[in-house]
Write a structure and sequence with these properties.
By secondary structure, this protein is mostly helical. It has one domain: Growth Hormone, Chain: A (Up-down Bundle), CATH 1.20.1250. It contains 22 helices and two strands. A two-stranded antiparallel ribbon has the order 1-2. Helix 9 packs antiparallel against helix 10, helix 15 runs antiparallel to helix 18 and helix 15 runs antiparallel to helix 21. The N terminus and C terminus are likely disordered. This is Major facilitator superfamily (MFS) profile domain-containing protein.
Length: 474
C-alpha cells in the first residue's frame, strides 16, 4: 500500500533535517575533490603541528636566553597556546561561510590561509638579530595559523560526514582524524630526521627552518578545491511553521518562512545545552592530543632524554592512524547508541592511568615509552571515533558548521592549546606524574559534557518532527 503524499513529504522533511539535501539525497562530491580535501587536511595539520615539535629550538631562537633553557621552552609553549586563542574567531567566520556559502569554500580558504604564515615563519630573523621584534612576528604568524585552523577541522568533518550515510559516520570521522594525525606524524618524522642528522648548532642555525618552508606545499590542494571543483549547496531544513516564525506572502499565496540569522539560531536557548556539551567533550580530546603527541615528544627528547624520542613518537603516530579507522569502524559496527558509552569508558580509563603512565615514562626506557604512549593512543582513538559523529549530530544542518566550529574551538583555545604549556610548568614544579592529572580533570569535564548532551542531543530533531509543516498551512 502506497504512502499518502503528506506522509511522504513528512519523511523527506525529516531526512533533510538529518543532513540530507531537499528530496532526501546526500550531497555528492567527486573523488578528486574529496582527495584534495584530505590532502589539504594532512598538510594543514602538518603546518600547524610542526611548531610544537621544534618548540625547544624555537624557544632558544626567538626568546632571550636564560640560565637553564627551561624558561625559553615554557615561553615557546606559551606562544604555541596563543595561536589557539584566535581559533574561535576563525571558527565562527569559516563556520558562517560554510553554512551560508558552502562547505567546500570554508575548507579551501582555511587551507590556503595556513600555508602563507607557515612559510613566513621559516624566514623570520632570530632574537639575536632584531630582538623582541622577532618574537612579535612569530606571535603574529602563529595567530594567523590559529585563525586558519579554527575553520579547518570541523569543516573537514562536516564536509565528509554529510556526504555519507550515518551508518558510516564513525569510519568517515576516523578518516578525517587519521588525516590530521598523518599531518602530525609527517611533522614528527621531519623533526626526527633533522635531529638525528644535524648538530645542535646546525638545528638552531637553519635546520628548524626547513620544515616550515615545506608548508607552502599546502597551497596545492587549496588551489585545486578553489578552481577545479564545484560547490555543493548546504543542506537546509524543510520549511516549517513554529510559534516564533515570521511569515511573508509568496507567489501563489503560500506563506514563506523568514529564518533567523545563523548566529542568532546558534545562540538560541534551545541550542545552548548542545553548545555547552560540545565544548566540554572536545576539551578532553584536544587536551590529551597535544599532551600525548606534541608535549610528550619534547618531554622525552629534552627533559627525560629518551633515545630516539621523536622516532618513538612517530611510530606511535603511525599506529594511531590505523587506530583512528579502527575506532570509527567499531563505532559504526556497534551503532550510534554506542557512542556515549565508548566515550565514557575510554575517558575514564585514560584519566585513571595517565598520571602513572607519564611518571613511568620519566624513567627513560624507550620500549616502555613506546608501549605506554601507544596505549594512550588506543584510548584516544576509541574516544575520537565516537566523538565526531556525536558532535555533529547535536546540531541541525543549517547551523551545524557554525555551531560545531564555535564550540569545538572554544574548547581547544581554552584547554588544548595551553595544555603543553601547563604540562611543562606542572612537570617542573611537581614532578613527572603531574601532567597526567590534566588528563584526569579533562575526563571529568568530558563526563559532565556527555551528561548535559544527553538531554540536548535530539531536541532539534524532535522540534522539527513535531512542528507543523508548511504543506498543512493554507
Amino acid at each position: 500500500m502506497s504512502s499518502s503524499p503528506s506522509k511522504q513529504q513528512d519523511q523527506v522533511n525529516l531526512r533533510s533535517a538529518d543532513g540530507l539535501m531537499q528530496g532526501g539525497e546526500l550531497p555528492q562530491y567527486d573523488f578528486k575533490t574529496k582527495m584534495a580535501g584530505i590532502a589539504g587536511n594532512v598538510l594543514e595539520w602538518y603546518d600547524f603541528s610542526v611548531y610544537g615539535y621544534f618548540s625547544d629550538i624555537i624557544g632558544k631562537v626567538f626568546f632571550a636566553p636564560d640560565a637553564t633553557g627551561k624558561a625559553a621552552l615554557v615561553e615557546s609553549f606559551a606562544v604555541f597556546g596563543i595561536a589557539f586563542l584566535i581559533r574561535p574567531i576563525g571558527g565562527a567566520i569559516f563556520g558562517y561561510m560554510g553554512d551560508n556559502v558552502g562547505r567546500k569554500s570554508a575548507l579551501e580558504n582555511s587551507i590556503l590561509l595556513m600555508a602563507l604564515p607557515t612559510f613566513i615563519m621559516g624566514c623570520l630573523p632570530s632574537y639575536a638579530s632584531i630582538g623582541w621584534y622577532s618574537t612579535a612576528l612569530l606571535i603574529i604568524c602563529r595567530m594567523l595559523q590559529g585563525f586558519s585552523v579554527g575553520g579547518q577541522l570541523m569543516s573537514s568533518v562536516v564536509f565528509a560526514l554529510e556526504a555519507s550515510p550515518e551508518s558510516t559516520w564513525g569510519f568517515q570521522a576516523g578518516a578525517v582524524f587519521a588525516a590530521t594525525t598523518l599531518g602530525a606524524v609527517i611533522g614528527s618524522l621531519f623533526a626526527y630526521a633533522l635531529r638525528e642528522n644535524l648538530t645542535e648548532e646546525q638545528m638552531e642555525s637553519f635546520g628548524w627552518r626547513i620544515p616550515f618552508f615545506f608548508g607552502v606545499v599546502g597551497i596545492i590542494p587549496g588551489l585545486y578545491l578553489k578552481h577545479r571543483s564545484k560547490e555543493i549547496p548546504v543542506p537546509k531544513p524543510a520549511p516549517q511553521i513554529s510559534p516564533d516564525a515570521v511569515t511573508t506572502p509568496s507567489v501563489g499565496g503560500h506563506p514563506q518562512l523568514e529564518r533567523q540569522g545563523t548566529f542568532q539560531e546558534t545562540f538560541a536557548p534551545n541550542n545552548r545545552r548542545a553548545l555547552i556539551a560540545s565544548m566540554l567533550v572536545p576539551a578532553f580530546t584536544s587536551g590529551t592530543y597535544y599532551i600525548v603527541f606534541v608535549w610528550m615528544a619534547v618531554y622525552m627528547q629534552t627533559i627525560v632524554e629518551v633515545p630516539h624520542a621523536f622516532g618513538i613518537n612517530s611510530a606511535v603516530g603511525v599506529i594511531g592512524i590505523g587506530l583512528c579507522f579502527a575506532g570509527g569502524w567499531m563505532v559504526d559496527r556497534l551503532g550510534a547508541k554506542s557512542r556515549v558509552p565508548l566515550m565514557l569508558g575510554s575517558s575514564l580509563a585514560f584519566g585513571l592511568v595517565a598520571p602513572y603512565f607519564i611518571s613511568t615514562m620519566g624513567q627513560g626506557d624507550p620500549l616502555t615509552c613506546f608501549i605506554l604512549q601507544g596505549t594512550m593512543a588506543v584510548l584516544m582513538g576509541i574516544f575520537g571515533g565516537a566523538m565526531h559523529p556525536w558532535l555533529i549530530s547535536n546540531f541541525p544542518p543549517h547551523i551545524r558548521l557554525t555551531s560545531t566550529t564555535l564550540a569545538y574551538n572554544m574548547a581547544v583555545s581554552l584547554v588544548g592549546g595551553f595544555s603543553p604549556f601547563v604540562a611543562t610548568l606542572l612537570q617542573e614544579e611537581y614532578g613527572n606524574a603531574a601532567p597526567g592529572y590534566i588528563v584526569s580533570v579533562l575526563a571529568v569535564l568530558a563526563w559532565l559534557g556527555l551528561i548535559i548532551g544527553s538531554t540536548a542531543k535530539t531536541s532539534w530533531k524532535d522540534d522539527r518532527a513535531n512542528a507543523p509543516k508548511l504543506s498543512s498551512v493554507v
